[in-house]
Specification:
The complex is a heterodimer of chains A (318) and B (199). Chain A is mainly α and 318 residues long. Chain A has 13 helices and no strands. Classes of the chains: A mainly alpha (318), B mainly alpha (199).
Chain lengths: 318, 199
């Protein structure tokens, strides 16, 4: 006879009960013994069944069957219809779909809210920019109107208006006009005859003679040649050269930059009368800060300046 | 339904059919499931409740989740069911332990130890013990008979393993075998002539 051997798939409760109550043929019993030695989980089932039978006093298969039948009646289990599972499945799928839909809606709503808030901030920023640009445009128009007015005024006065480099610079003072230059130069020449060069009538110095004979352009040339050759040591040379180059027209050798240079050295060499001319020279070059510095240091110079220059400087100082 | 194998029934169950659950639990694995639950709960009523709960849980499991939640191998469907029954029985036992204890007729069996019961109560009579030993030896279970004798002498597993020249695993297996065979002999009433046993 072939030795029978069991596989886990062949083992069922019926077989194990037969084994417990010694209802199996000898070879099958031996095969099952061998199998139980290998399979611990089935051995545990056999032990549990044996304990169950012992504790319930079930000493035969029939007694066990009867006992289990009684329990089955109490168990009274009838499987619920499969529809329950399927309906529950539908419910489950439906609830899942509803949940997903709700999640999608919430997500979209959050996105929309975010976009709305972004749009709002953008609109606010645009409105702000527009209002700023409008105010700037208004300011520009006002400035242009003021400029036009000033030009008209200057044209009626016969003077040219210098372009304003700095918006903050005062529009009241716009440099010396040719008339003013001539006037100041005349005053200066008279003053030099009466004050500065009063005792220089018989002087050997060429520039003094030229100046006294009302030839300021030639006097300036000689003074400049002295300065360039290094012959001039005194502040006097620089003072006169500076004043002449400041008030003379450009075609006769006038130059504001040179004037500033000469007048600065004159001031350094204690020529106090050079200060108001230096202030005017600074204003010609739009160097308001330097002019104001001098004015702050020597307030008495203010009285020697023309009226419009004074007003411009005081407004600038404020 | 009755002709189908366990695995075929499981596949049916996966197709949202609940009838295989009834067949598997009520007919095929009812004895072993009862035995498993009874071992923990020591009450036929509670064990029955546990199996009922197991069946209901399996039936009410959502169809798409059945493959995920209940996945036995083709040759161990019974084992998977017993595992579930065991865990449910353990839960119930834990719940009962938490509740205040009430005196019931079955209380003395609540902490029933089958091995102790078997050896100390049923083998209290020396004639029954002699009978079981004799039957074991007749059946060729000499080593198991010796093992039982040593247990009754009060020796521990380690000492018995040393006396019989076995390692621990072997000794444990021998013990299981010895007890299983002894229980089988008692159940088959081969020693039924003993008055004490019958009482």
């Amino acid at each position: 006879m072939r030795n029978k051997s069991y596989t886990p798939g062949e083992i069922n409760d019926e077989l194990l009960i037969d084994y417990i109550f010694k209802l199996l043929p000898a070879d099958q019993e031996q095969a099952l013994e061998n199998f139980l030695e290998q399979s611990e989980e089935h051995a545990i089932v056999v032990d549990e069944l044996l304990d169950y039978c012992l504790s319930n006093g079930l000493e035969s298969k029939e007694a066990l069957q009867r006992h289990l039948d009684e329990l089955r009646q109490a168990f009274n289990f009838s499987p619920p219809s499969s529809n329950l599972g399927s309906s529950r499945t539908i419910l489950y799928i439906l609830s899942l779909a509803v949940f997903l839909l709700a999640a999608l809606l919430v997500w979209q709503w959050i996105r929309l809210e975010k976009m709305k808030s972004q749009l709002k901030t953008q609109q606010e920023a645009q409105a702000l920019l527009e209002s700023q640009s409008k105010t700037l445009q208004k300011e520009n128009i006002q400035l242009q109107e003021e400029l036009l007015k000033l030009r008209e005024q200057s044209e009626t006065n016969g003077t040219t208006l210098k372009p304003l480099k700095d918006r903050t610079s005062s529009p009241i003072y716009a440099g010396l006009s040719d008339k003013e230059r001539n006037k100041i130069l005349k005053e200066f020449l008279e003053k030099s005859k009466t004050e500065y060069l009063r005792e220089a009538g018989n002087s050997n110095m060429k520039w003094k003679r030229l100046l006294l004979s009302n030839r300021p352009a030639e006097a300036l040339n000689t003074l400049e040649s002295y300065i360039q050759n290094g012959k001039s040591v005194y502040g006097e040379h620089y003072f006169f050269a500076g004043v002449l180059s400041l008030y003379l027209p450009e075609d006769q050798g006038g130059n504001s930059r040179k004037a500033v240079k000469y007048l600065e050295t004159a001031v350094q060499r204690d020529f106090a009368d050079a200060r108001p001319h230096l202030i005017l020279a600074y204003l010609e070059l739009d160097q308001w800060n330097k002019a104001l510095e001098i004015l702050n240091q020597y307030p008495e110079t203010e009285y020697l300046l023309p009226q419009d220059v004074k007003a411009a400087l005081s407004s600038r100082q404020k | 339904m009755k002709k189908k194998t366990d695995w075929e029934l499981v596949l049916e169950y996966y197709k949202c059919n609940n009838e295989p659950v009834g067949e598997l639990i009520r007919n095929r694995y009812y004895p072993s499931l009862m035995a498993t639950a009874y071992r923990i709960l020591k009450s036929n009523h509670d064990a029955n409740d546990v199996i009922q709960e197991l069946a209901l849980k399996l039936c009410t499991l959502l169809c798409p989740l059945r493959r995920l939640k209940f996945k036995p191998k083709p040759d161990n469907v019974g084992y998977a069911l017993r595992l579930r029954a065991k865990s449910l029985a353990s839960d119930l036992h834990r719940k009962k332990k938490r509740q205040p204890r009430t005196q019931t007729p079955e209380e003395h069996t609540l902490f029933y130890d089958p091995e102790k019961d078997l050896l100390q109560q049923r083998f209290a009579n020396s004639r029954l013990l002699d009978c079981v030993m004799q039957k074991l030896r007749e059946a060729g279970w000499e080593r198991e008979a010796n093992y039982l004798e040593l247990i009754l002498e009060g020796k521990k597993l380690k000492e018995i393993a040393h006396d019989l020249g076995m390692d621990r695993d072997e000794a444990r297996k021998c013990r299981q075998k010895a007890l299983r065979q002894a229980k089988r002999i008692i159940l088959s009433r081969q020693c039924h002539g003993d008055k004490d046993f019958n009482s």
